[in-house]
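Today's session is about reading a structure prediction critically. Students often jump straight to the picture, but the first step is always the sequence itself: look for stretches that repeat, for charged clusters, for runs of hydrophobic residues. Only then move on to the predicted structure, which in these notes is written as discrete structure tokens rather than atom positions. Here is the chain we will use throughout the hour.
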Amino acid sequence: MISKQAVNIDHFKRSWSYTDSARNAWSEIIEKYKENNPNGKILLPSYIGWSANEGSGIFDSVLKSGLEYDFYCLGLHLEVEVADLKEKVLQNPNQLILLVHYFGFVDSNYKEITNWLLENNVFFVEDCAHAWLSDLIGGTCGRKGNYSFYSLHKLLPISTGGIMVNNSFAGNKNNNPFFELNYDLLSIYTIRRSNYKYLLNLLRDIDGIDALYKDLEDGICPQTLPVIVEDYDRTSLYHEMNNTGFGMVSLYHTMIEQLDGFQSEAAAVLSHKIINFPIHQDVTESDIDEMVLELKKILNA
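Below is the predicted structure for this chain, in token form.
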């Protein structure tokens, strides 16, 4: 039998739990893992930031848990060094593995990595703090790990809120206390992608500015446009652009001290050169034209 319309209220629902922040969602996930693995271990990517005002969104929760931890290597473009990840997982298959979708992008080896983790029954979590529209609209991440989590204010004009997603169960756990879900997420997704492509094209001819992700694959909703600054002091550029009214962000500019000396291009090199351009839904193409013009003035001064 087929009903005239869909009537199964739980069909295709995902188990969402709303939290104060993505950090709190991550802490809850760690505690759930810890219930079955009190002496467990967490394997993290070797690119984790810290700031004096906010601490470390990823690492503070790990320290709070009291569990052991280690890092797997990332390359200069934040790509997972698959062989290193697999080697460290095989040393202890009961670890919790964290995959981070930096700036809304998905690793080029995402399918290989996640399929291998699933085949080996490894507990892994997807950090979609920047990438929840890449998950919800693009469908390119966030569905394969045991859990995933989001940060609402990274993409929407609100000040707080996170989501923990349990991919093993269906159905919402509670209502959203932070905002009504009446944003046109498809339009936000579309505008962010369009702004990224427009700005990326303008940056191609600027010497010393190298986009971290030179292609925007289908299904990816970028949080910002990250670049490597080659021939200019990143911190100076950050302050000069912001002083002229262009809201640049320098995400992951300072690594946690536990990564000192860790052999990873991401931590050792990229963290000193990365800066992020805004491409959010309030930005217009004329805004981008003005921003690029100001960038050229500063670099050529």
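Discussion point for the tutorial: The first strand starts at residue 15 and ends at 19.
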